[in-house]
């Protein structure tokens, strides 16, 4: 099977390299002399393809390859090396083209592809506990109704200002007299 990138057959592939990485988290429990490793899955697979395009269609091939790179859209990729990995779509992460000197209509290309993993849509859940929200709403309503009484309370205290001021003056005079 010849490698295919979307509708483009990749000519004269010289080398393909894959890079797969597993993500591990290390946890060091208190009081233990060792650590525990947690497997967090794998990162998207990367694939590097080196090849050469020759002949009259080589320039057209490089232009189409460049268009796919600039579109930055995931494209289907098929090759024997990724057949068992069940990779369906790849993003063209990097593209290098080089016209080879001394040979007309000859271009070297290096493609760096990254596996495209469709993001998971977040679940439609409420971030607010509805029972707690109704309790809070009830408390706020009670507080607001209590605030309606504030003007009456404040004006009802005016009659105590003069007697309490007089009492404060007498207490301060008493305090000076006892400490002198």
List the topology elements:
Blueprint: E1 4-5, E2 8-9, E3 13-19, E4 22-27, E5 36-42, E6 46-54, H1 58-71, E7 75-78, H2 80-83, E8 89-99, E9 106-115, H3 130-147, H4 150-156, H5 158-179
Antiparallel strand pairs: 1-2, 1-7, 3-6, 4-5, 6-9, 7-8, 8-9
Short description:
The chain is α+β, with helices and mostly antiparallel strands and 180 residues long.
What would your notes on this structure say?
It is built from five helices and nine strands. The chain is of the alpha+beta class. It folds into two domains: 4-27 and 38-115, Elongation Factor Tu (Ef-tu), domain 3 (Beta Barrel); 130-179, no CATH class. The strands form two sheets. Strands 2-1-7-8-9-6-3 form a seven-stranded antiparallel beta sheet. It has a two-stranded antiparallel sheet with strand order 4-5. Strand 1 and strand 2 form a beta hairpin. The radius of gyration is 38 Å and the shape is elongated. The termini are far apart.
Keywords, please?
elongated; Elongation Factor Tu (Ef-tu), domain 3; 180 residues; seven-stranded antiparallel beta sheet; 5 helices; 2 domains; alpha+beta
Radius of gyration: 38 Å
Residue share in helix? 25-40%
Compute the number of helices: 5
- Cα end-to-end separation: 109 Å
User: Biggest sheet, strands in spatial order?
Assistant: 2-1-7-8-9-6-3
Structural class by SSE content:
alpha+beta
Number of DSSP E strands: 9
Shape: elongated
Number of domains: 2
Q: Give the DSSP E fraction (strand runs of 2 or more residues).
A: 25-35%
Write the CATH fold name of the largest domain. Elongation Factor Tu (Ef-tu), domain 3
> Which CATH architecture of the largest domain?
Beta Barrel
| Parts with pLDDT < 50 across at least 5 consecutive residues | none
The run of helices and strands is: EEEEEEHEHEEHHH
Average residue-wise pLDDT: 83
Biggest β-sheet: count, sense, barrel? 7 strands, antiparallel
Which class of the largest domain in CATH terms?
Mainly Beta
């Amino acid at each position: 099977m010849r490698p295919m990138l979307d509708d483009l057959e990749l000519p004269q592939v010289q080398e393909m390299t894959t890079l797969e990485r597993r993500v591990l988290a290390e946890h060091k429990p208190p009081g233990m002399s060792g650590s525990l490793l947690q497997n967090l899955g794998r990162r998207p697979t990367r694939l590097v393809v080196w090849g050469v395009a020759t002949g009259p269609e080589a320039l057209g091939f490089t232009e189409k390859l460049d268009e796919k790179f600039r579109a930055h859209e995931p494209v289907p990729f098929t090759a024997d090396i990724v057949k068992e990995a069940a990779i369906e779509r790849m993003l063209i992460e990097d593209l290098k083209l080089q016209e080879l000197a001394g040979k007309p209509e000859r271009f070297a290309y290096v493609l760096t592809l990254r596996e495209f993993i469709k993001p998971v849509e977040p679940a439609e859940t409420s971030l607010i506990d509805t029972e707690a929200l109704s309790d809070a709403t009830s408390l706020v309503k009670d507080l607001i109704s209590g605030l309606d009484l504030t003007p009456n309370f404040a004006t009802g205290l005016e009659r105590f200002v003069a007697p309490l001021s007089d009492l404060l003056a007498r207490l301060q005079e008493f305090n000076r007299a006892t400490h002198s």
